[in-house]
Structures are given as structure tokens and as C-alpha cells.
Write a structure and sequence with these properties.
By secondary structure, the chain is an alpha/beta fold. About 50% of the residues lie in helices and about 5% in strands. The strands form 2 sheets. It has a 6-stranded mixed β-sheet, sandwiched between helices. A two-stranded antiparallel ribbon has the order 7-8. The longest helix has about 35 residues. The radius of gyration is 27 Å and the shape is globular. The N and C termini lie far apart (about 70 Å).
């Protein structure tokens, strides 16, 4: 049964006045989180100023790979919130949270070589969404003893969502439930629009003016034209369903075959056609059918067999370089097109991220060719604006010669031989530059082990043999344990 607006407002006021716990409202910019925040805002503004004593923190997590239209909408909403809160004497503080540099999507994908997310390796949700919001909520709750987290979740959206919401029930406090994440054990969860339908949400938003000044009518128009009426929720733990089937999620999401929401925007509104290059990049270059572009070794150099084949690991150097170039080309196109229709300074990848990717390539992966500046300059036709780094005493002709020699010595395994030699040289140069040689031999040994196989076929043969030996050893151990148990029984 749908709970009336006035009943919810009275409930919010009762909970707000019942203790000193600060509130945290998850705000994604979508209809459900907007309705929840609007209800809270209306409830608190009806209280006398003397009773508006508890802070209400509005948190919005920007993964930095959001649909640019939605990202701009949310950023504008947060600014309006800050201004309106000050003018209306509301205890509201708006926060835009972002992933740490090492957790950002392009740093992980292009820098470290993580393959595009998939069901069995969904590395993105925790790094892009959960980490930032959990850190904020955890710190605030620990500093204040406890906190109340307000989420715009509704029943009936999906079976997965209902299952998650079931875990919030059974609380010892009326209408509040303990968060199931151990990291957020001091956090109570409150779901004000839990009983509402999608139509209830829209009726409320369209008939009630937004208190911080955004246009709910404009939000409705953003939703129009797409197929599924679902938004990407604020994610605070691993129990929350993936955003893959939602209307507003990351444009890089490979959990679904296509980004239907962005496609609809581009097709239905000529003012949003400037995003077409993003769609083209996503559909052409981000795929889970990528086995041939990944190293047959894992990130740590280990081999793992499944169904008599090696499980491939990170993207190879050539794939990462190609991804970066195409991303920069796409960024250049959308910046130029977006400027013409009022979307200024659209940024798909920041200089800070480029610098971190460059560091990972050169320092961690030993790719001392240092090709990132060249890739940037080939796209923008201007010098790379990043910092100068310590150069190695080799240039392009030296690396070309090294490749030619590797190909002459062993054509079948030329790439492996080239990478091995270059990595050994990189380690030697870095050891000389840092003057830290205590672990130098260990790192050299690691490089040799990671490049121990000429081809994938040799690596698979070795891994299968090792797996068989380990299996035989386990069987022998089990047999020995059985003999020992039998002997104990007889002696007893």
C-alpha cells in the first residue's frame, strides 16, 4: 500500500527529532533519490529553526565515467543545493564523491590492463562506487557514534532489489534497519519511498516544486525516450544490485550489450547528438570478447588453467595503447561538439589520470618506451602537458633495433623475448636512478619468472603438468591420511 506524502513527512520529522544522529542521503540525480531528498527537505523546512540541529549530508558518487548529460545534471543540482541550503537556513551539506586516483576506471583499464568488467570479474562497482561512499559513511558514523542512511529504494523495481531490501528489515527500531555491511555496522538505513510505485514518484515530483531549484519537469524529460524506467542507485555495499540494467549508469558498462539510455538520448534529441562518438567508442572498443588482446599470464605472472586452457590476464601493451589513442580521439570530438550546444569542458579522461597511466606503464610495467606523450601528441597535435620524467638512455631507434634482433633470434617468440629484455633493462635503469638496490635481485628474478615461457602453448603444457602433479600429490596425502586413521583404529 502506498504511504501518503503527509504521513512520510511526519515520519521523517519524528525520526529526525528523536536523536542526535547525522543523516546521509544517497543522491544519484535520478527520480527515486530526488523524491526521497525532496521529502526530507520539505519535512525539515517545516520545523522551526531551533530544531534544525542535525546535519543532513547529501552524497553523490561520480564515477567519472557517467553519462555526461547526467553528470552535468547532478553537478548542477549539487551546486543549487548548496546555495538553497544557505539561503533557506537548511542543515544540508552536499558532497560530490569520486574514486581515488588508483581506483579510477581508465587507470585500471588502460593503465593496469584490467579487462572490461564482466560477470565473473566485476571489478568496477567496488572501485568506482562503493569505496568512496563507504569511506564517507564509515568516517561520519564513527565520528558521531551512529548515522542514518537514507536511500531512495522502492519495492517492486526488481526481484534483486526486493531481496536486498528484505535484509534491511527486522530492526529493533521502528522504520530503521541495521546495515548488513560490517564496515557500516553503526549505520541505520531508512527507506522513505519504499512503498511507492514509479507512478507515485513521478506524480509527487511533477506536482510539487523542487525546494533546491532544479526542474523536476526537466528531469522527467531526461527520462523520456528510454526503455527501462530504472536508475542507477547509490551503492554502499556489495549487496546492492549492479547498475548494468539501469537507465543512468556508466557509459563504459560492459555488463550489458549496449547503452540504451545514451542511445535514446542521441536519437531523440539533436541537442545530445554530440555524444555519438562516446557511443561509437564504447560499442567498438569496449568488449568482453577480448581474449586475443590479453596476456596469457595473470597480473602477477602466474598461470591458471580452466577447461584445459589458460585464463588470460591483463590487456597487452598494444591493446592498452590502442584504447588510449581512441579514447583521446573521442574526447577531442565530443569536446568540440559539446561546446557548440552548451556542454563546456567535457572531459572523458583527466591529465591526472593520464599521468598515473604513464607512471604505471613506465615504472610498474617496465614499458620504458614511454609512448603515452607520443600518443597524446599524435591526437592533439600539440606537446603533452604532463610532467617531465627521468628518461632512459635509449630512444626509438634503440627499441626498434631490439625488436629486430628479437625477431631474428626467435621469430615465434619475438614479442616475449623483446619484453623480457626491455623489462630487465627497465629494472636496471630504475635501480640506478633510485639508488635502492636492496630488492634489485628479487625484482630481476620476478621478471625472469614472469617471462619464462616462449609461447602460450609452452606455458599451458607446463601449467597442465603442474596441475596434474599437484592433484596426484593431494591424492597421495589423502591416502596417507586414510592409512593413518585405519592404523589408529586398529591400535585402539
Amino acid at each position: 500500500m502506498t504511504t501518503p506524502v503527509e504521513t512520510i513527512i511526519q515520519e521523517i520529522q519524528k525520526i529526525y527529532l528523536s536523536d542526535s544522529m547525522p543523516w546521509i542521503i544517497g543522491y544519484s540525480g535520478g527520480k527515486d533519490s530526488t523524491a526521497s531528498l525532496q521529502l526530507v527537505w520539505r519535512a525539515i523546512e517545516q520545523l522551526p529553526l531551533s530544531k534544525r540541529t542535525k546535519l543532513i549530508h547529501v552524497i553523490s558518487t561520480d564515477t567519472l565515467v557517467e553519462n555526461p548529460v547526467i553528470a552535468a545534471w547532478v553537478a548542477s543540482s549539487l551546486e543549487l543545493m548548496r546555495s538553497a541550503a544557505q539561503q533557506q537556513n537548511m542543515p544540508v551539506r552536499a558532497h560530490r564523491l569520486t574514486p581515488t586516483l588508483e581506483n579510477r576506471f581508465w587507470v585500471s583499464l588502460i593503465g593496469k590492463g584490467y579487462p572490461a568488467p564482466r560477470n565473473r570479474f566485476r571489478w568496477c562497482t567496488d572501485r568506482l562506487k562503493i569505496s568512496a561512499s563507504t569511506k564517507f559513511i564509515q568516517e561520519l558514523s564513527e565520528a558521531n557514534g551512529e548515522a542514518i542512511l537514507v536511500l531512495g529504494q522502492r519495492r517492486g523495481e526488481s526481484q534483486a532489489r526486493d531481496k536486498v531490501m528484505d535484509t534491511y528489515h527486522g530492526s529493533t527500531r521502528d522504520r530503521l534497519s541495521r546495515n548488513k555491511d560490517p564496515k557500516l555496522s553503526r549505520v541505520w538505513v531508512y527507506l522513505p519511498v519504499e512503498t511507492w510505485t514509479s507512478d507515485d514518484v513521478w506524480e509527487y515530483l511533477i506536482t510539487e516544486d523542487n525546494p533546491w531549484g532544479v526542474s523536476n519537469q526537466e528531469l522527467f524529460h531526461i527520462y523520456r525516450g528510454a526503455t527501462a524506467d530504472a536508475e542507477c542507485p547509490i551503492v554502499v555495499d556489495t549487496s546492492t544490485p549492479s547498475c548494468g540494467d539501469s537507465r543512468f549508469g556508466c557509459y563504459v558498462c560492459t555488463m550489458v550489450s549496449q547503452d540504451k539510455s545514451m542511445q535514446a538520448m542521441v536519437q531523440n534529441d539533436e541537442q545530445k547528438a554530440w555524444m555519438q562518438p562516446i557511443l561509437d567508442f564504447r560499442n567498438t572498443h569496449l568488449t568482453t570478447d577480448d581474449r586475443e588482446t590479453r596476456d596469457f599470464r595473470r597480473m602477477n605472472g602466474q598461470l591458471k588453467v580452466l577447461n584445459d586452457a589458460l585464463i588470460h590476464g591483463p590487456y597487452l601493451q598494444t591493446k592498452r595503447e590502442a584504447l588510449l589513442k581512441e579514447l583521446l580521439v573521442t574526447q577531442k570530438l565530443v569536446k568540440e561538439a559539446g561546446e557548440k550546444v552548451g556542454y563546456h569542458n567535457v572531459e572523458l579522461i583527466s591529465l591526472e589520470e593520464l599521468e598515473e597511466i604513464r607512471r604505471i606503464w613506465v615504472e610498474e610495467k617496465g614499458e620504458i618506451e614511454d609512448l603515452l606523450p607520443d600518443i597524446y601528441e599524435s591526437v592533439y597535435q600539440q606537446p603533452y602537458p604532463g610532467k617531465e620524467i627521468e628518461s632512459v638512455p635509449l630512444d626509438g631507434s634503440d627499441f626498434a633495433l631490439l625488436k629486430a634482433v628479437a625477431d631474428e633470434i626467435d621469430p615465434e617468440a619475438a614479442e616475449t623475448l623483446y619484453r623480457l629484455t626491455r623489462s630487465l633493462l627497465a629494472e636496471q635503469f630504475q635501480a640506478q636512478q633510485t639508488l635502492k638496490r636492496s630488492q634489485h635481485l628479487d625484482r630481476l628474478e620476478s621478471i625472469l619468472q614472469n617471462n619464462a615461457f616462449r609461447t602460450e602453448e609452452e606455458a599451458l603444457e607446463f601449467a597442465m603438468s603442474t596441475q596434474k602433479q599437484e592433484s596426484n600429490a593431494e591424492q597421495i596425502d589423502e591416502a596417507s591420511d586414510g592409512d593413518s586413521n585405519d592404523a589408529s583404529t586398529i591400535l585402539a
